[in-house]
Amino acid sequence: MATQSPTRTRSIPPWVWRVLRLAGIPFVVYVIWRIDWGEVLSIYQRLGLFTALGMLAGLLVSFWTKVHRWQLLLRFQGIEPSWWEVFFAFSEAYFYGFLTPARLGEAYRMRHLTQWGLGMKRAVGNLLVERGMDIAFLANLGLFTLGFYSTYPAYSGAVYGFIAVALVCGIGVWILWRFQYLRTWIAQEDGSFGDWRLVLLCGGHTVASWAILYLIVFWVRGVLGIPMGPAMTLFCFVLSTAVTAIPVSVAGLGTKELALMQFLAFWGYPAEQAVAFSLIFALVFVLNLLFSGAIWFGILARRT
Question: How many beta carbons lie within 10 A of that of residue 26, not counting itself?
Fold first, then answer.
């Protein structure tokens, strides 16, 4: 009796992702050619040391919130590392996540999770839930924004956004309740579940961390003199985050600026203000990199 050979699945070759990264170069060239960079620099002359320090302080609070969220999630799984252990493990992954492609930083967290006693399945489940909270929040924020924008400048569309978010969240809860094996990825060692209030607190921490980032962007936008209200800032915040996730450039460079230029032009904003707004995210990225790098060198000094 002949045996059927196993079906081979073809994975996407690594060079494809490198080519996609290069696909963003024409967008970068177009933005550089299209923009009056003297005007952009004049806008950023308003950005002083106090604003930079305020941004860094907000990022510190956001970072602490994420560390505490991870500690709560570990406690839900019955793991009780000290706060400093969680802090150093998260900082290490945070730093390498900035410097390396894909999510290599998560491999360092996997190492710590297994050292703390989690099996491979529960360790992967821990990371999926921790990262999934950010993805779920951004997806729901995108749904809310679409509903809100459907009637903007009237605010009645916010109701549609809330309804969409409620439906998606309800479906998600039903799936977790209906398919119990999905929950075993985060169950405790004996198969029991921890205090679900900790998971709700993790959700609150997720909302808080992203709200802090939005407030930083909204504040800096005001310092730069870009005349956007809270709603328009929210639209651009969501658009920038979504475009950055498209793998056609490094950190969305070029594609994000072009998307904001086209979107804000519809509402009468000049291209220079769109690029100035986009560069706020680049500034946040640089501050995050400097901050995580300082923590990492502190960790190295502590180990020696």
Answer: 13
